[in-house]
Amino acid sequence: MKRSSVKELLHSDKFLQEVHVKGWVRTFRSNRFIALNDGSTINNIQCVVDFENTNEALLKRINTGAAVAIKGTLVESQGKGQTVEVQVTDLEILGDSNPEEYPIQPKKHSFEFLRENAHLRVRTNTFSAIMRVRSALSFAVHQYFQQNGFYYVNTPIITGSDAEGAGEMFKVTNFDTNKAPLNEEGEVDYTQDFFGKQTNLTVSGQLEAETYAMALGKVYTFGPTFRAENSNTTRHLAEFWMIEPEVAFNDLDANMDLSEDFIKYVLGYVLENCKDDLAFLDNRLAQEEKQKPQAQRSDMGLLERLNFVVENNFKRVSYTEAIDILRNSKPNKKKKFQFPVNEWGVDLQSEHERYLVEKHFKCPVILFDYPANIKAFYMRLNEDGKTVRAMDVLFPGIGEMVGGSQREERLDVLKEKMAELDIPEEELWWYLDTRKFGTAVHSGFGLGFERLVLFTTGMGNIRDVIPFPRTPQNAEF
Ligand code: 4AD
Ligand code: MG
């Protein structure tokens, strides 16, 4: 007999027919009712055991977490809250789960506890819902770009260049680190290392993606990126996934349009295709909000937020306008910001970004035209000589979701900028070639996938939306 998934059975009307299903026991009540889940949906199917005709030793093995195979008859359910159930005719324990030892009991566990059990937490409703939504979001990412004429490019993970110039990179070497050979100056001699030079894990695929955009026109990357910044926040990971589209002939306005259209599409996709999981997460968030004091509660539920983003225009504001707003804001005047905003040119902290999106505009905001000296070398210099065509998309509860720019396509201006920042031309000769041969206006951005999953699921900590988070002092699993 063909095995059905729980999801198929819950949508089936093949009553009184024999069915076969396998999964894990979530709960077992009254020696009769198994709530069975196999990951295909957040919903469990109730399997009713004929306990009078089942031997006691077998009943004792039906514990939370055990893997079971069930054959039985699909019937319309008598109980409320479900439409169908399985009357069990045959039950086999595939894998026991000792209740004395199994950490994931049917009760509320803290997220901290579940992080320590990241290999098992996906067996809970919350984490299975998050991970199904995450999967649907990544599918939607590919679907959006593939439907819009973009090519998927796999940029290298090991790289010799520091794309962001921030220097927060993990080294890649196959030296025995205790015995690395030294050169005459007494420094590690990387010419003898595996690649014959110093290499790192990439912080961004952008520079390589740019070279591909200058031939394929519209490209995107979607891969892991690595940052060795010591940021212990709810929004930073040392290993995260980034989506980076790059488009030839797009200026900054087109780049903003693309980011907005893209985000709305993927959110629309999950609203349409992950209804059960989002309903569960919406409810979870509502419960969590109830625990907070009134003043800290958010005005919108999860589904409301997602629909709001899909249905409303993002507000586009220049850095200069944003500084004016912040300078005159209440928290600034009352000295409530940790970093006061006094003059044009300061970098925006997340408290400022959040004030703009959550208090002032109350919607996603695209900030653009930042001061050149707080942004990366590759951004296109404006006519004013002091701002660059940068853009950040800021989201409520998240802060920066997207960072991008129109790229500096003028060889001489780019070289000048690199010289200013001591970026050796020899290292990026191939990048400069794109400006030497057939250079053109082009733009792109990077969206942190986990920040998108964070927003979509209404979770509060980025460590809870990636299967096995890597953060300072933590690389378990
Ligand atoms: O703003 P960032 O640093 O931009 C770039 O790397 C550009 N090269 C992208 C491009 O133009 N192609 O990073 C882009 C996004 C951020 O907006 C944020 O969402 C996410 O990546 N991000 C992180 N997400 C999780 N943990 C971290 N440590 C992150 N650092 C950046
Ligand atoms: Mg950024």
From TrEMBL:
UniProt keyword Ligase present: yes
Enzyme Commission (EC) number: 6.1.1.22
Any one biological process term the GO annotation gives: asparaginyl-tRNA aminoacylation
UniProt keyword list: Aminoacyl-tRNA synthetase, ATP-binding, Coiled coil, Cytoplasm, Ligase, Nucleotide-binding, Protein biosynthesis
Major localization class: cytoplasm
Pfam families in alphabetical order: tRNA-synt_2 (PF00152), tRNA_anti-codon (PF01336)
Top-level enzyme category: ligase
Subcellular location: Cytoplasm
Origin: domain of life: Bacteria
Catalytic activity reported: tRNA(Asn) + L-asparagine + ATP = L-asparaginyl-tRNA(Asn) + AMP + diphosphate + H(+)
UniProt cross-references to SUPFAM superfamilies, sorted A to Z: Class II aaRS and biotin synthetases (SSF55681), Nucleic acid-binding proteins (SSF50249)
Coiled coil (UniProt feature): 271-298
An example Gene Ontology molecular-function term: asparagine-tRNA ligase activity
Domain Aminoacyl-transfer RNA synthetases class-II family profile: 131-467
Signal peptide segment: none
Recorded GO CC terms: cytoplasm
NCBIfam families found in the cross-reference section: asnS, PRK03932.1
HAMAP family in the cross-refs: Asn_tRNA_synth
Subunit structure: Homodimer.
Family membership: Belongs to the class-II aminoacyl-tRNA synthetase family.
Descriptive protein name: Asparagine--tRNA ligase
